[in-house]
Amino acid sequence: MPLETPAPAGPAPLAPPRQAFIERSHQRSEALGLKRHEKSGFDPLIRSDLNVARERNQRLYTHAAPVMQLLYEQIVNTESMIVLTDAQGTILHAVGDDGFLARAHRVALAPGENWAEHSKGTNAIGTALFEETATLVHGGEHFMHANNFLTCSASPIFDPRGNMLGVLDVTGDHRGYHQHTMGLVRMSARMIENHWLSDDYNSRLRLHFHSRPEFIGTLLEGILVVSPEGRLLGANRAALDQLGMSGAELRSRSLSSLLGTTPAAVYDHFRMPLSPPMQLCLPTGQSLFVSARFDWPSRPVVAGLHTADVEVAEVRESAPSVAAVDAAMPAHTAPSAEAGGAQRFSGLQYLRTGDAHLEAVIQKVRRVLDRGIPLLILGETGTGKELLARAVHHDSNRSRQPFVAVNCASIPESLIEAELFGYEEGAFTGARRKGAPGRLVQANGGTLFLDEIGDMPLALQARLLRALQERSVTPLGSTKSIAVDIAVIGATHRNLREMIEQQTFREDLYYRLNGLALRLPALRERSDLEAIVRRILQAERPQDTPELSSQVLGMFRRYQWPGNIRQLANVLRTAAVMSAGERLVTTAHLSDDFLEDIQRIVGGVMPILPSAPAPAHAHAPVWSAGEAPSIPPVPQPAFATAEPAMARTLEQAEIDMIRATLDAVGGNISLASKQLGISRNTIYRKLRWNTPTGE
Fold this sequence. Notes:
Layout: H1 16-31, H2 47-56, H3 58-75, E1 80-86, E2 91-96, H4 98-105, H5 117-120, H6 124-131, E3 135-138, E4 150-158, E5 164-173, H7 181-200, E6 205-210, E7 222-226, E8 232-235, H8 237-243, H9 247-251, H10 255-259, H11 263-270, E9 278-281, E10 287-293, H12 322-327, E11 335-337, E12 343-345, H13 347-351, H14 356-368, E13 375-378, H15 385-395, E14 403-407, H16 413-421, E15 422-423, E16 436-437, H17 439-442, E17 447-451, H18 458-470, E18 472-473, E19 482-483, E20 487-492, H19 496-501, H20 507-513, E21 516-519, H21 529-540, E22 547-548, H22 550-558, H23 564-578, E23 584-585, H24 592-602, H25 650-664, H26 669-676, H27 680-689
Parallel strand pairs: 13-20, 13-21, 14-17, 17-20, 22-23
Antiparallel strand pairs: 1-2, 1-5, 3-4, 4-5, 6-7, 6-10, 7-8, 9-10, 11-12, 15-16, 18-19
Helix pairs in contact: 3-7, 21-23
């Protein structure tokens, strides 16, 4: 509901702290040589420079635009406008009442103009930038008299690491001052910051907290971002305010030292639907109610590498900065040289875990890296196609630009064209006001990952081909083309050659995408299962990484893994939580449906095999001392001599193991359940279902 325009009024007389605040800004303005009676000079950026500034801050605008629209609906018809600036004070966008926009333009309050203090003296935008705090400047408090007809309420916008992104400001006629405007601006800035945080860390554990549980889910809640190792990666301003910490101080702490818990304990608590908030305590003794948000498919498969599940169905706009990824990497990953002798993490190097097939893929990629050759990654679902694509992007010269992933199978056919190419305002029913940039534009300068490209509608394939060939995009409803510079990586589990023969995939697009085809091996074809298991368990439980029992490891080696690494990761995530506090992962920690699936798929034979020898090839996995996976060879169970292993089913092997253990402990069910790591009920159920009639 729009705010009512109040009677002409101003804020209360300046309190001493605010008076000193304004006086400091006036002193800075005078020191800069500005004159109070001079007119606001017009010094706008030329159109091309403004476009560059807007492109550089496109992500900020993407998050701010819907919030600005919501805010405008609250102040419409109040002789006001909303302004978004970058971190230097340059106005990027403005919306407001037409009449007031024209008045504001006369004092250079318009896109392209700079409103930092060095340019316009004391004003809410420039002073908020300098003081890094929400700022109200009313009427005559402006340094330049030409701006005295304005009342401005501005709030800086920060990223989760405390870096200034820009300023959100509401400016209006000073006679229409409303005391609630500052509150609206502050809340709107926090909404933008929270959106940015969620976008930056959508693959991380996020803790939402407050001292009062009813405030969780509101703009008053604090949000902490936690790494799999328990490090605190970032926070919103509400969190810093409640904790009384700076961002730097917070990032020096761990979840354990701050709240006395671990990521494993959090996952364990919230793994069931509708779990109540956890009640945790700060070192000061203050109690906090904590809720958690995380996406099982979005959590890292290997420790530190920012990726969604091995392949993600959702669309992301960008990846964290190279520095953020580097900081999260294990110390034992092999570095590669950069300009100036600096060392940085190599994503491709990190993928090397000892498999000869994958090693051949990595060597091929390295030969064509930064050569302008498009990649087409082939392989079954779950083999790690996006993981490889992100590693390629990270090691390329484009690593500091966006990585934009689009899953062509997850977007409705009616929307995929708008998602890829963007659209102008009014291009179709339901289109957002002011339109939206497409994924190709968002990836400009970086990498566009087209996942499941084989599921793209045939009609859209021609338009994509044209855009890739012409290196330009025309949004829906527009006649103007936008130049784009992108590296393209495609991926699919389909046989595109068969689709070409069936005329469901364009042959010319296939050859445009297929500069170098790379086939990722299925998990059942790889020789590095144990190394992958170790990596996943290290990511899930870095402090007390468990190992697989000999029985579980034998099952894993024989299983065909139809879901590949994605399935393995999901199985191990659950097992890591279920086995919290224990050294070994046993069958008791695996879900019943997975065990039943093993029985059904393996179907006849399930011998427990000894460890396979490592493949002999020139490029062994890179581990520093003490880091090599130490999963011991699997001993043959004592009861295995009762009959040839190949003649026994998995189900019978389990029954034999239970019976052998019961015999060894004199029939004590409780003792047998402890030794086997399974419940008493499981023993009863297994023996009851498999006891011949009359036994």
